Prior knowledge:
Blueprint: H1 13-37, E1 44-47, E2 58-69, E3 72-87, H2 94-104, H3 106-109, E4 111-113, E5 119-131, E6 136-138, E7 157-166, E8 170-173, E9 176-179, E10 182-188, E11 194-200, E12 203-212, E13 232-242, E14 246-256, H4 272-281, H5 289-322
Antiparallel strand pairs: 1-2, 2-3, 3-14, 4-5, 5-6, 5-7, 7-10, 8-9, 11-12, 12-13, 13-14
Amino acid sequence: MPSSCVAPPSLTDHERSLIEKCEDAVREGLALERWCRTGGDGRHEFRLDLGRRFRLPNRADGYFGTLTVNGAERSVMGCRQQIEFGRIDRRRDAEALLTQFVLGEFLSRAHWVYDDGAPGGFDVERSLYRTSDGVYGKFPNDQRVGAMHWQDVGTRFRWVLLTIMLNDFVLSLGPVTSRMAEAVSVVAMPEFVHVVRNPSPEYALEVSIGYPFIDHAPIPNFFGFGPGKFGIAVKLYSFHLTHDNRIRVVMEFAAAPRAEKVFDFFGVDPVYGGADLLRRMSLGLFDPQGLHDTMDTGMLVEHCRVHQKLMDGTSEVWEDWLRLPIS
């Protein structure tokens, strides 16, 4: 922890460890967020086929690239999704409505129940925080459900630790499909909030939020690349309002380095570990790079599927929210 910050003695050792991980994510996530927002110089892009029909028109692209962090070059893998989200019929207050929804409502409302009773979207809980004047603390139990208002990040809080349940995480292995309980720990921080008027000739407004991931899996898993095992990683959500009040959402995920394992069974990955063994046994005649590219692309596709489902459901949440009485 920074020496200028104060941690109350009531915090447990586990909570203090999470605070350290949050501070690491704050420092390291900024470089990757800037790299994403400036287009990721020199990255190789390719179209992703999500292989499923979704409610909203969408496009997904993946990429591989490199990034220099703390003087060291790292590989990067990521994806960028564009979704035609909806529109606002009320023209005069369109910008204010979109800003209010993204900063105050989006993550806290982005959950629902499917017809079969399964949960969908994200369930969000806030836990630890660092105030703007350097005091660490934790939210009481009755204030943990949902995300904070993003306007409080940078004013009341330097950062807030969020746990996000990924209700639409589905693992497919051949003919077997299984819905899995997975969650991530992320840090809400002010540098990831952008409200920009007239960001380009096409758009009247951009409202963006996002977060870096921390090195912690709230639910233990056997993945080698996934919740709590990303290295440096960020997720960005940008809501763009056109001049005729259509909304386009651009989501981006990036992780550095690229996946070094597919699975992690007590430190052993039979996929990339097996490929490396074959490379050594063949004295370098077998090049595992093609396998890495294929597997990494598959991981990006699954990430995009989860988040496309998030936007499909959130668009209906948005439409319901617009019909609420104006307070």
